[in-house]
Amino acid sequence: MGLIVNKPAPDLRFADLLKQLSIPLGSDSAESGSRPIHFGGPVETARGFVLHSSDYSVSDATLSISPLFSMTATRDILTDMARGQGPVKSLLALGYAGWAPGQLEAEIQQNGWLVADGSPEIVFSPDDGGKWEAALRTLGIDPLMLSAAGGRA
């Protein structure tokens, strides 16, 4: 599974989500109420995920992805975030992208994907429009030099 990290859902904000779930927004985190909710992918679009820094954890609910990233998909993290007690960095997403066994590996072998290491500076950046280019630049690729034609060297 994967999450799209650069596509905010139009007109959906954290405060809207909290209201829908009857979670009060604390006064300490009023500015975070306007944070966007992202379109995480086309699968189970009503299911929410919080990709976040590893400084936060809920027992038996947080998946450690790497030393830099964790993911929690329970109401607990939303309640803590509403109180201003959640992770230092986070990205909220509805839905996810999914692949059948071996499908993603096959797509990578067919040059359907460029793979870069995850960077918290890029993933958690508020500049959703610049994330793709920033990720390409970590690979030493200038987006203007990309071609629609593929090949192998």
Notes on the protein architecture:
This protein is 22% helix and 22% strand. The chain has 153 residues and is an alpha+beta fold. It starts with 7 loop residues before the first strand and ends in a 15-residue tail after the last helix. The longest helix has 8 residues, at 75-82. Strands 1-2-6-3-5-4 form a six-stranded mixed sheet. It has helices spanning 14-20, 75-82, 103-109, 120-123, 131-138; strands spanning 8-13, 36-39, 43-52, 62-64, 70-72, 90-96.
Structure described in brief:
This protein is an alpha+beta fold and 153 residues long. It contains five helices and six strands. It has two domains: 89 residues, 2-Layer Sandwich (Alpha-Beta Plaits), CATH 3.30.70.1300; 40 residues, no CATH class.
- Which spans of ≥5 residues are poorly predicted at pLDDT below 50? none
CATH class of the largest domain: Alpha Beta
Strand order of the largest sheet: 1-2-6-3-5-4
Relative strand content:
15-25%
Structural class: alpha+beta
Helix content: 10-25%
Q: Which topology of the largest domain does CATH recognise?
A: Alpha-Beta Plaits
Q: Give the total of domains.
A: 2
CATH-assigned homologous superfamily of the largest domain: VC0467-like domains
Number of strands: 6
Indicate the overall shape.
elongated
Number of helices: 5
Mean pLDDT: 90
List the helices and strands and how they pair.
Layout lengths: L7 E6 H7 L15 E4 L3 E10 L9 E3 L5 E3 L2 H8 L7 E7 L6 H7 L10 H4 L7 H8 L15
Parallel strand pairs: 2-6
Antiparallel strand pairs: 1-2, 3-5, 3-6, 4-5
